[in-house]
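ugh ok fine here u go
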Amino acid sequence: MEPSPQRRCPQCGTPVAQRADTCLMCGAVLKESKRKSGRLPQTDLLLPLLLVGALALLWLWKPWRAAEPQALTAPTATVSTTPTQLPTATYAMAPTATPLYSPTPPPTATLPPNQTRHTVKSGETVSTIAKLYGTTIQAILQANSLKATSYLRIGQELVIPLPVANTPTPTVTPTPSPTPFLYSIKSGDTLSVIAQRYKTTVEALMQANGITDATRIHIGTKLKIVQPPDYTATMAYETYEVKAGDTLISISAKYKVSVAKIKEVNKLAGDRLGVGQKLRIPVGTATPTPSLTPTPTLTPTPGPARPAPVLLAPPDGTAFEGADTVILLNWASVGILDEDEWYVVRVRRSGEVAELLPLVWTKATSWRLPGDLYVAGLEEPQRFYWQVSVMQKTGLTEDGTWTGEQISPPGVVRTFTWK
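structure:
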């Protein structure tokens, strides 16, 4: 064990006892010197403690982070000495929008020549309308997208399909040309369509090719296409000079000649007339009158305004069997009928149920025989006689029956039987 160091007086250096409070030589106070050298006063310790506390508070509070954003951005990369040139942005201009134009309303559809329109009247049904135009109930329903259970409204407009196109075909006796043109019948062709295409008539084609039923032609059959002769050369005319205020209707009424005939003779495409225009008005058939001179004198004689319709089908003497048989009477058109002109069908049956049926007035070129005319159980089949003429409606009787004046020859009578 090492001896404890000897205590000395700080002023005179004289050795003193360890617990002595004063130096015996110089009287210096030793206790104070010991207190000063042994521990620090409290005020000396407080300052370091406050400094440590302040540092701890600053570390917990971290006021230098208050100004930082909530989400720290990624560290910025060190820029190289040679910066890369960024591409220049190219701006594409959006095309200017083109305004949409209001659609032009389509023109009113023109019906083909084998169709017409009918406005439904009170009491009419699809069945009665079909009989009026000589067509079928199914054809009317299909043409108007109707069902068998559909109801008709008064004033409703229906499209009526007609069996044969209503094309202007005057009745003539054609003379075949020396070298006739041959046409091969194709799918969908009818005599009416072919006649209209080559500016001839159904009658001319039937007579030149020996056809008796216009509805029975076959694909691939060769037809001789002939042009009818200029029958107008056999008619007498009066020249009329158009005056202010004249119309085809007024001239037609003055000479009692149909508008269609005047247009046909003068080859008019429309209804417009010009003042001073000269028109040829047919006034009759040119007949030579005996004379002392060799030049005949033409005497105009009144003739019919319309030719007799040529019957097309069924062929004369056709035999039908069965109550469900469809019998369609068909004839050629005589031209575009005026408003007061109608085809009139006369039908008579003989035998045990002989009777003259009521006249049938129609604008169509066909008429379907009513199915209720069939009589079962007869020993001999019913024989029907039919013919077609053109009449001008003049009025009504007390019971509502139409009356008129016949403006065409009566035409040929054909027969058929029904058993």
